[in-house]
Each structure stands twice: as C-alpha cells, then as structure tokens.
Amino acid sequence: VIYFPANIAALAIIFGTQTVSLFGVNANENKLMIVGIAVGIATFVTLMNFLGAKAAGGIQMVSTICKLLPLALIIIFGLLHKGDVPFQLFPIEAGANKPFISALGSGLLATMFAYDGWIHVGNIAGEMKNPKKDLPKAIVSGLSIVMVVYLLINIAFLMVMSATALAGTDTPASEVATIIFGTMGGKLVSIGILISVFGTINGYIMTGMRIPYAMAIENKLPFSKWFATLSNKSIPYNSGVFILLISVIMMLVGGFNTLTDMLVFVIWIFYTMTFLAVFILRKREPKLLRPYKVPLYPFIPTIALVGGLFIVFNTLFTQPLLALCGIGLTALGLPVYFIMRDKHINIQKEKR
C-alpha cells in the first residue's frame, strides 16, 4: 500500500523535472512547479485508469513502444559519438566524507530502483500456461535485457559527458541527447523519455490501485467495503483515489532521491527475509513439493542474502534518518494487521 505510491510519487517528480527542463526552465529554482506537474500527471493517469482496463492497457502498449525508441537512439549514437570527453571508469570517487564501501552501498540504492519491479511478474503466474517454466524464464530474460540496456546506455552517457557532469544534472538523458542531436533533436528525445515515464506511472497506478482492493476482498483492511467498491467498468476507483492521495502526500514531503532510496531500502528488507526463508524452508520442510527450485543452491541464495544484508545494514549506518523513516512508515501497518487479524479470528469463532 505504501510501496506503489512511493514509486508513483518518485516517477511523477521525474516527469515534472523532465517537463520543466524540456521548456528550458531551471529545475532547481522551480521545485513548486515540478510538484504541481507531478500531482497533475498522477491525477490525470489515475482518471484515465478509471475509464477501464482497456484504456489503461492501450496506454501501456503505446508507451512501451515509445520508450524503446529514445533509449535505442541514445545508445547507438552515444556509442558512436566522438567528442572531447575521454571514456573513464576509474578512479572511482567515493566522495569527500564517505569510505568507498559506504559510497558503494548508497549507489546501490539508486541502482536497485532501476531494476525494481521484477517481483511483480509473479502476480500474473496464475495466467501463465506453464508457470513452472515460464515464470523463471520471464524473470531471468527480463532482468537480463534490462541489465544490458542500462549498461549500454550508461556507457553511451559516459562517451558523451564526464561522470562529474552527469552527477551534477537531474536530466542526464536529455542533456546527452541535446549534445548528440542538437537542441531540436534533444527535445524530441526528451519527449520520448516523458512518454516512457508516463507509461511507467500508468503501470504502477494500474497495478497499485488493485492492491488495496485485493486486500479489502479478504477483509485485511479497515473500511474493506469501501476499498472493495467497483465502478460499472469493474475498476476499484476508491482504491485508486486512496493510492493517489498517498502518492500526492509523498510528492509534497520528499524528493525523487529520498523517495527512491527509502522505498528500495524498505523493499530490500523484505527481499532479504525472502532469501533467508529459502534456507529455513529447505531445512524445515525438505520434502515439500517445489514446482521451482533455486538452481545452484546454496550458492545463489547465499550471494542474494549477503547482498541484501549489505544494502540494508549499510543504509542503516550511512543514512539512519532515511532508514528509520522507511521502517517507521512500514511499521504503521502493524496495528492495522493485528486489528484485522484479531477481527478475522473473532469472525471465524462466531461462525463455529
């Protein structure tokens, strides 16, 4: 319930930042304008989703096609670009007041946001003909493609701009596109990026509004009847309004980096517990039927667990305020969980 609004808020802020940059407005001096655009685009996309799943699906299809074009153009022409900037990966600068390991952990928070979303493939496992084979393939192939694309586009960025220059801008793709294609070409690529972000916002809203609805159907939320209400087009519009309101609040209180770092930190706490659960369940229930088994056990789960623990504990030590805020927001759900659990137990007792 918090994870999706945080993603929507962060992406909407990026949309606002990209929009003001497109029109030559200084993003650092117009934060209020960016937030206004962010609220507007999130509201617009939510209303579009209220028109029905077909409309939302159409938006997703068009934006998916459009998002590939600017990425492909930047990668191809960026790699071929011959400028005065030497391509350089080393030495790696950790910053004036941070050891290298701490800086690496902080950088991972930002990087992991780009890869997040892979777990949502599991939501459609029930619609797959052969999830035992298709689900692992979808996750591995999807992440592999994303890794290759992000690696290539970052190499392209570094062929055009120095690492220092890239670190100092909120709109690296637009600035790289402007250097490669000129002002007009850069603006066209920027529009493509806006369409890409628009589509991603749509995807999170389309999926996110169904989370409170699904929980409400199982009576896991207060006011479940309200959250479970559907429109005449079978859209959970009350859940959509709730997700939008939480998203807007997050836009008002946090910037892009704060929101993404916080949500990645929180979600990686749960990912890490999942990695640990693989070991526990293998030992506790060795004969349990497992349609899918982690290959190369215990090596792959061990690598995942160590990586997860590093991200979580590094954030706790290097960004304690952000970590505590993330844990605090997550902990707000505990009273709701216990209240609804006890209510469910009492209902079951009454039925007996």
UniProtKB/TrEMBL annotation:
InterPro entries, alphabetized: AA/rel_permease1, AminoAcid_Transporter
Location of this chain's protein in the cell: Membrane
GO CC annotation, single: membrane
Keywords, sorted A to Z: Membrane, Transmembrane, Transmembrane helix
Pfam families attached to this UniProt entry: AA_permease_2
Entry keyword annotation includes Transmembrane: yes
TM annotation in the entry: 6-25, 32-52, 58-80, 138-167, 179-205, 235-256, 262-282, 294-315, 321-340
GO molecular function terms noted in the UniProt entry: L-amino acid transmembrane transporter activity
Protein known as: Amino acid permease
Organism: Bacillus mycoides
